[in-house]
Each structure stands twice: as structure tokens, then as C-alpha cells.
Amino acid sequence: MSGATELVVDVEAISDGVILRPKGDVDMARSPALRTKLTAALKGNPARLVLDLSEVPYMDSSGLATLIEALQTTRKNKIKFIVCNLLPRVRSILEIARLTTVFTVVENRDEALKA
């Protein structure tokens, strides 16, 4: 779905953790960039990791695998992992895979900071 351009991931420090905001499709070509940013954020052992997907119009199975890996790491280290601002297509993919019952999914950033 995406071109060969690199995935940009904004990183924002918050009082109890980190917010990551990828921009663009998260597919096989781009999911390694998200994985790298997630891994770096988790090395700091934050209390909370928020993944804001407001600028991710599409995600394929490699993107889902990246999210699942992050979930496993956060659970192992007792870190809150919250996904927010899902666009309709990405929400649909998560629902079809029944991952909305596995992840903490909230509507927006404010809810993510309270979750």
C-alpha cells in the first residue's frame, strides 16, 4: 500500500512514559521502523506507552505483528500499553483479528493518558 518512503515516528515524552505517533502506512516495508522506535521507547522502562495511530491509514499483518511484540514486552515488564486514535480501516483490521479485546484501545489521547 505504501511507497518506499521511510515511516516517520514522532516520539513525545510524558510524565509517566512515552507517546509514539507513526505517520503513514505500517506495512512490511515500514513496520521495522516502528519496531525500532517501540524497542527504543521500551528500553527506558516507562510506566506507560501510548501508540497514537491517528496518522496511520493502513496496517498489514507485519504491522499487527509489531504491535503484538510490543504488547508482549509491555506485559512482561508491567508497562501500560494503550493504542488510541484508530482510523476506520486500521480499527477494522484490529477488530477482524479480534485484537481489540487484547489491546487497551481508547478513542483519543486524553483517554490514553487516563487509562
Quickly describe the structure:
The chain is of the alpha/beta class and 115 residues long. It has helices at 31-43, 61-76, 88-96, 109-114, and strands at residues 8-14, 17-23, 48-52, 80-84, 104-106.
Task: Describe the structure using short key phrases.
115 residues, alpha/beta, Transcription Regulator spoIIAA, five-stranded mixed sheet, 4 helices, 38% helix, globular
Can you offer a commentary on this structure?
It is a single chain. The protein is an alpha/beta fold. The protein has a single domain, classed as 2-Layer Sandwich (Transcription Regulator spoIIAA). It has 4 helices and 5 strands. A 5-stranded mixed β-sheet has the order 1-2-3-4-5. The mean pLDDT is 94.
